[in-house]
Amino acid sequence: MVLKTIRSATDRWNQKNGEFAWIFEPYTGDEVIALDCEMTSLDPQKAELVSIAAVKIKGTQVLTSEKLDIKLQKPESLSGDSIKVHRIRGVDLLGGEVLGDALHELIQFIGNRPIMGYYIDYDMTVLNRFIRPRFGFSLPNKTIELSHCYLHKIQRANPELVPDLQFETIAEKLGVPMVGERHTALGDAVTTALMYVRLLKGPSPSY
Fold it and tell me: Which residues are in the Exonuclease domain (predicted)?
């Protein structure tokens, strides 16, 4: 955490006159970005990006009209094993965006808003592996982990309970339907956004 804080301060100083200086400013609004990425590997040091999706949450509303849904050019490491998970084949990525352009679009879309997701640290680690060499900084945004929000809500009502934190189980317990197919970036981003809003304004799920 200390190293992250120091690095973010250094990045902010280095970017003070740059295009993205504004994303280092404190955010004071009521919007959050739900983010999901599909990748070629579960190893964050090897994974390459296949698709990126993000949707805005304003207060307790999911703004599905304000979203980002990007398929990238086929990465070299796209394999049969990864295709079984996200079901995106090489042919599906024909005409996909260049990674640098996609990341620029993502940074502009997110801005300095908090980023929320399911196992969001994994997505952030992979994104920053590609963002830092291209733009000279890592995303400084506050992150919100959906599974932690769910766990805290459950344990406020049942302190001794250790709930199942699988994505599908959380959705079921919250009464949130899956949007699109599981392991598609946009479907998972919207489903995650709906679960987060349900946690903000709904009662604690029963166990």
Answer: 31-205
